[in-house]
Amino acid sequence: MPVPLKYAVVERERRYLLSKLPTGVASRQEIVDRYLDGTRLRLREVHEEDGTVVRKLGHKVRLTDGPREVACTNLYLDEVEWALLSSLPARILRKTRYLVPWGRSQVAIDEHEDGTLVAEIDDGDEPSACLPDWLDVVRDVTDDESWTGGAIAR
Length: 154
Fold this sequence. Notes:
This protein is mostly beta strands. It has one domain: Hypothetical Protein Pfu-838710-001, CATH 2.40.320. The chain contains 2 helices and 9 strands; from the N terminus they run βββββαββββα. It has helices spanning about 80-85, 150, and strands spanning about 10-20, 25-35, 40-50, 55-60, 70-75, 90-100, 105-110, 115-120, 135-140.
């Protein structure tokens, strides 16, 4: 049976390991992801530079065999909902996300606790092979399951 996508947003992302953070970072976020054990659910807490905190429950459904294309649905949580859901067993991933403008879009670069840098480029509806020339790519990990957030979380 096909997955109903009425409330989902389809993400088509490419991921690349980087050797260094590029110049031109426009903003920074501190992110804590909690991948709930035994589910496809993720709790995300985002701390913005201005002090704003956003908490949400996400559900991801794969549309292809690999991690390249997923349907995402999010619910925004208040403090009571967050406190209840964050008490569930989960694997945790902490990272700093840097957003760098690129044309009419932006590149999200996640710096993990061990210093590893992973760039994400969302292609929207039009798959592309274009990369910004300022992105110092070590290798393409788009289809490598071990570089998904759920696989990296501890």
